[in-house]
User: Which sequence fits this backbone?
């Protein structure tokens, strides 16, 4: 007797269940969606997972595509990392454009110069506290918490890639902590890389249609950067030092 | 038997308090400067992202190098058994500690984050010569402290030889560490040489002895104690050798660089075209800081006059500061060569000689280090028996070693 009654009630019961089910799914969806989106952005490396040496982030600069007078990469770096963009001798410059002229042939080149993210970084060797360090994926960084501001790394860097924060900084990007009295340099936009984005300078160069900066994993033979490095002659600046830098130059 | 009596100085004269007041005031000015730099950031100094180490480092490295060198007088007595120098040893140890303290104070207060000293003492990267130096410096204080104890405490006298030997080895390690701060900088043409470590050791002999002679003559003169010409005569001859040896190392360093094609432009800069640096090198370091003092000290007439000996020692010290300036600041002023054979320009001052003008706060910080060393010495010689009551040939030259050991108590 109960059965038919139940079956009679069933449509109504189903609809109530359906309602609860859909409601729960919607609520769960609303709750989880931002997390899923973030996970998407973070791609393969959630915050709790350490960087791995399976990848080695690097950059290839095609100087044939880089034009004198174009400063897009520098501007993008300043915007992304909230640098003042000032050009005083005491101002930080994480990336700069260098204009070169061969003294014999008069051939001119223009290229961006920044931390070369060496495999054997002299800045890391000399740092007394270990504040200068290399992440497993090859990115050379400064730990702002243990940098004592001795500037020995700046003496040691062959590329003049580091800046000392000479005065108070305001309006920082929360992803890129900075501080008076500490040394800083190009982080390869590590905060963006960890979200599966390209460094700001590379993105700006690409947006401008120049594509002079190729970013990618030097350990992945299928990556564009690896293919380019395998195909064309590329140069390491101060290759004589044997630092095996992650930033390569093509065309100089 | 106890011919040598060590006595505290009275330290009640107007002159003593005036001197103490003067160096105390400079110390305070140095500390105030450090506070000012800390508060505003290094933007108030002449240091930049191009010249990252400035005049404070000139003073600090000079003091640290001289600190290890000034201990040599004691080492000659303890390690090489020259009893003549035994009565001079306690002052030597005291000066070593005082100058190292002064130098380190400057180095620490110049840090961008001087408030993070505890981090410098607790986080170590043992591949860094800076980190190793932290141990060498603290070890030096301890060892020289123990050495002084063995010299000044009668019951401990029998250990002074061993302590002196350890102190001697340690001071060689310490100056090797200081020279290697620059020697290990592979990127810069001014440095990157194994020669810098032994060169700094020889420089320390010269700087330290010059400081020692100045302090010895001044303290004996001002306290009215007798100081035999024979004492000065020996120290003077030794100074000639040390200054000449330091000059020899400098010559070898530059001659080697001149032989290396890629170094030619740098050598041309530092020796000829670099403005203030060649001037300081040739006039300050070579002429006034080395050749003139050697000439004065070796001169049969002038070398006997105490005022001239003092002048020569003072010139060696000033020449040392010139050498530090040329080495530390000149080495950074010359632009890094990223693209040899190319003309280079950028917004970050690539390819151009970097200017440097020290500001008053950083000069006072550097002088503050010297003043702190002086304060320590002035107070220590008043409180403890560092100085022999008199130093004439009888006390300093004629006694056998064992008697000196006892006498030194």
Assistant:
């Amino acid at each position: 007797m109960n059965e038919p009654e139940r079956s009679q009630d069933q449509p109504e019961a189903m609809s109530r269940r359906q309602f609860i089910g859909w409601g729960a799914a919607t609520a769960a969806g609303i709750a989880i969606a931002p997390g899923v989106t973030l996970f998407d952005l973070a791609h393969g490396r959630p915050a709790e997972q350490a960087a791995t040496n399976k990848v080695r982030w690097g950059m290839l600069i095609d100087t044939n595509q880089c034009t004198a007078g174009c400063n897009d990469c520098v501007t993008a770096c300043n915007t992304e990392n909230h640098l003042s963009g000032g050009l005083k001798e005491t101002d930080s410059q994480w990336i700069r454009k260098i204009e070169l002229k061969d003294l014999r042939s008069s051939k001119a080149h223009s290229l961006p110069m920044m931390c070369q993210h060496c495999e054997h970084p002299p800045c890391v060797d000399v740092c007394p506290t270990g504040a200068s360090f290399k992440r497993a994926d090859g990115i050379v960084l400064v730990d702002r918490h243990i940098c004592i501001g001795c500037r020995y790394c700046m003496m040691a860097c062959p590329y003049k890639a580091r800046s000392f924060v000479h005065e108070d900084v305001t309006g920082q990007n929360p992803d890129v902590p900075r501080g008076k009295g500490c040394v800083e340099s190009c982080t390869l936009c590590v905060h963006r890389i960890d979200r599966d984005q390209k460094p700001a300078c590379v993105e700006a160069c690409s947006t401008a249609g120049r594509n002079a900066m190729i970013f990618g994993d030097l350990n992945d033979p299928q990556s564009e950067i690896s293919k380019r490095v395998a195909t064309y002659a590329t140069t390491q600046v101060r290759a004589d030092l044997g630092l095996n830098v992650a930033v390569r130059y093509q065309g100089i | 038997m106890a011919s040598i009596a060590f006595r505290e100085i009275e330290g009640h004269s107007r002159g003593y308090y005036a001197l103490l007041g003067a160096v105390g005031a400079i110390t305070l000015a140095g500390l105030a400067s450090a506070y000012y730099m800390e508060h505003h950031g290094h933007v108030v100094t002449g240091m930049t992202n191009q010249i990252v180490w400035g005049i404070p480092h000139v003073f600090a490295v000079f003091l640290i190098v001289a600190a290890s060198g000034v201990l040599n007088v004691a080492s000659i007595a303890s390690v090489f058994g020259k009893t003549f120098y035994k009565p001079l040893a306690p002052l030597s140890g005291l000066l070593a500690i005082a100058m190292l303290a002064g130098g380190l104070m400057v180095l620490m207060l110049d840090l961008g984050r001087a408030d993070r000293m505890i981090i410098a003492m607790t986080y170590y990267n043992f591949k860094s010569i800076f980190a190793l130096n932290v141990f060498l410096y603290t070890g030096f204080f301890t060892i020289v402290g123990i050495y002084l104890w063995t010299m000044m405490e009668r019951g401990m006298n029998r250990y002074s030889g061993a302590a002196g030997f350890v102190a001697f080895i340690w001071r060689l390690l310490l100056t090797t560490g200081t020279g290697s701060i620059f020697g290990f900088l592979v990127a810069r043409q001014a440095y990157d040489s194994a020669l810098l470590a032994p060169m700094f050791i020889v420089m320390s002999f010269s700087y330290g002895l010059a400081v020692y002679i100045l302090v010895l003559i001044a303290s004996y003169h001002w306290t009215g104690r007798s100081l035999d010409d024979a004492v000065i005569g020996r120290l003077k001859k030794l100074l000639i050798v040390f200054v000449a040896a330091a000059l020899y190392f400098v010559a070898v360093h530059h001659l080697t660089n001149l032989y290396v094609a890629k170094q030619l432009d740098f050598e041309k800069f530092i020796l000829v075209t670099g403005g203030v640096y060649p001037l300081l090198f040739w006039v300050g370091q070579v002429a006034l800081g080395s050749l003139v003092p050697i000439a004065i000290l070796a001169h049969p007439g002038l070398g006997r006059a105490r005022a001239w000996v003092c002048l020569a020692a003072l010139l060696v010290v000033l020449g040392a500061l010139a050498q530090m300036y040329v080495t530390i600041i000149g080495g950074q002023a010359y632009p890094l060569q990223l693209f040899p054979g190319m003309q280079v320009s950028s917004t970050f001052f690539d390819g151009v000689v970097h200017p440097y003008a020290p500001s008053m706060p950083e000069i006072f910080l550097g002088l503050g280090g010297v003043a702190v060393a002086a304060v320590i010495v002035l107070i220590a010689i008043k409180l403890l028996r560092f100085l022999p009551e008199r130093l004439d040939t009888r006390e300093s030259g004629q006694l056998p070693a064992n008697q000196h050991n006892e006498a030194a108590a």
Notes: Residues 1-11, 36-42 of chain A have pLDDT under 50 and may be disordered. Chain A has two domains: 1-42, 57-250. Chain A touches chain B through 56 residues (CB under 8 Å).
